[in-house]
Write a structure and sequence with these properties.
Layout: H1 20-30, E1 33-34, H2 35-38, H3 44-49, E2 54-57, E3 61-62, E4 72-73, H4 83-93, E5 98-103, H5 114-127, E6 132-136, H6 144-151, E7 157-159, H7 169-172, H8 178-191, E8 196-203, H9 209-221, E9 226-231, H10 248-261, E10 265-268, H11 278-283, H12 286-292
Parallel strand pairs: 2-5, 3-4, 5-6, 6-7, 7-8, 8-9, 9-10
Antiparallel strand pairs: 1-2
The structure holds iron/sulfur cluster.
Length: 296
């Protein structure tokens, strides 16, 4: 991130809270990856400082080459079968009550890594029975079986990011498909309507306001409960450039529009990322969900 050309609202203090070293040491000792590091997230000082991280399973090499993403592309390594248990150990050491797990895309695996996600959810629940688990999954090439494999482990939140509007998919996410991603979220509600679904959009990639509103409507039409929207910041000069920087007021307005559209929660702001304060965001809706679901 090149700080000098950023508008004032995108300059962030590097906070180093007391949790920073504990998170770093735990990750290093257990040989785990995070999307915070892999994607060069601008919130890393804040989140690690608060003792929070988003685990990235199935390695640090992705089989796709999205133009916005800092995660390295290429041929990934074989799955590490004890990784789910190590994730659970890390969550316990860090005292997490809300655990967010994502992954690289693994198109090389027959199930896209769905079973590995499922095992990770189970391992976390065995280690921390009262924890909430949010999974942020790839599109599994649209496989119903893979989505079901994850859903049957009952994550608290099933998240799949749209990332951008339909028109920009071929340029930004050449290996993905807008409708396929929407369908992934729709399948979840078909399989288990009680699971909270969530998605995220990056703004500033050249999308129009109408296109953003259209994507928001598409997400509501597949029953998506929670939406996050944040400013795209290219991780290096080799990545897709930002088209513009949205003012914080624009983010606020989109948040209001999203709530009017019927999302249960919307987080929208320059530094919002899918997993940013994810536990706090869900705290606002889980009491309502649990009441509706009879205490689950
Ligand atoms: S916002 Fe998410 S990805 Fe970024 S540092 Fe925080 S937990 Fe990690």
């Amino acid at each position: 991130m090149r700080v000098s050309r950023l508008p004032s609202w995108l300059k962030k203090d590097i906070s180093r809270g007391k949790g920073l070293f504990k998170v770093k040491d735990t990750l290093s000792e257990l040989g785990l990856n995070t999307v915070c590091q892999g994607a060069k997230c601008p919130n890393i000082g804040e989140c690690f400082g608060e003792g929070v991280a988003t685990f990235m399973i199935m390695g640090s090499i992705c089989t796709r080459n999205c133009r916005f993403c800092a995660v390295e592309g290429g041929d990934p390594n074989p799955l590490e079968l004890d990784e789910p248990v190590r994730i659970a150990q890390a969550a316990k050491i860090l005292g997490l009550t809300y655990v967010v797990v994502t992954s690289v895309t693994r198109d090389d695996l027959p199930d896209g890594g769905a079973e590995h996600f499922s095992k990770t959810i189970t391992a976390i629940r065995e280690s921390l029975p009262y924890s909430k688990v949010e999974v942020l999954v790839p599109d599994f090439k649209g496989s119903h079986d893979a989505v079901w494999e994850v859903v049957k482990s009952s994550p608290t939140v099933f998240s799949h990011n749209m990332e951008t509007v339909s028109r920009l998919y071929p340029r930004i996410r050449p290996g993905a498909d807008y409708c396929r991603s929407l369908n992934v979220l729709e399948f979840v509600k078909d399989f288990d309507s009680k699971i909270v679904t969530k998605s995220g959009l990056m703004l500033g990639l050249g999308e129009t306001r109408e296109e953003v509103l259209s994507s928001m409507k598409d997400l509501r039409n597949v029953g998506c409960d929670v939406l996050t929207m944040g400013q795209y910041l290219r991780p290096s000069d080799y990545h897709f450039p930002e088209e513009r920087f949205l003012h914080p007021e624009e983010f606020k307005e989109l948040e209001s529009i999203g709530k009017e559209m019927g999302f249960q929660e919307v987080a929208s702001g320059p530094f919002v990322r899918s997993s940013y304060h994810a536990g706090r965001l869900l705290e606002r809706i889980l009491p309502r969900q649990e009441k509706d679901n009879g205490g689950r």
